[in-house]
Amino acid sequence: MPEVTISIGGRNFDVACQDGEESYLHAAAKMLDDEAQVLADQAGRMPEARMLLMAGLLLADKTASVEDRMREVEASLAEREAELEGLRTLGAPEPERIEVPVVPREVTETLAELAARAEALAADVEEKTT
Fold first, then answer.
1. This prediction's pTM
2. CA neighbours within 13 Å on the CB side: how many for 74?
3. pLDDT tens digits, one per residue of 66-97
4. pLDDT recorded at residue 91
5. I need a surface site. Which of 4, 7, 81, 96 has the fewest CB within 10 A?
6. How far from chain centre, in Å, is Cα 94?
7. Which of 9, 4, 38 is closest to 24 using CA atoms?
8. What pLDDT, on a 0 to 100 scale, did the predictor assign at position 85?
9. SS3 breakdown of the chain: % helix, strand, coil, rounded to 5?
10. Phi, psi (degrees; rounded to nearest 5) at 6
């Protein structure tokens, strides 16, 4: 079991950890040291036990707020997943039927006759003007 020296609040501590966990221990110690540094900057020198207790409480508070936010995000995600699953179970929507009005045959024939008459009139007018 490796033993690692960590520094918190300007004090060194020898701590044992599992093989391969050294980087995690250093990361955790850095977080605790950062909190201890904030306390030292605000309150000056304080007893080691009090400094570690306060730094630990500050980290616990941050962790609790992150866990609360994580629960909110997980609940929102669960709602979205349920909504998505509900949409998947609906299947594809039925195609919408659109009716296009049909022009009656008589109207089409009448329009064709009117067009032919208009062309004939236009031809007569053209003949007379030339």
1. 0.53
2. 6
3. 999 999 999 999 999 999 999 888 878 888 88
4. 78
5. 96
6. 31
7. 4
8. 92
9. 70, 10, 20
10. -120, 155
What are the counts of helices (DSSP H) followed by strands (DSSP E) for the chain? 3, 2
7 CB-near residues (< 8 Å, 6+ apart): 13, 29, 33
H/E element holding 11? Answer: strand 11-16
Burial pattern 55-82, b for ≥16 Cβ within 10 A else e, equals: beebbeeeeeeeeeeeeeeeeeeeeeee
Q: Which amino acid is at 5?
A: T
- pLDDT attached to residue 66: 96
pLDDT at 64 over 90: yes
Amino acid present at 108: T
Q: How far apart, in Å, do the first and last CA atoms of the chain sit?
A: 114
pLDDT by residue (tens digit) across 30-48?
999 998 888 888 877 778 8
Distance from C-alpha of 78 to C-alpha of 83, rounded to nearest angstrom? 9
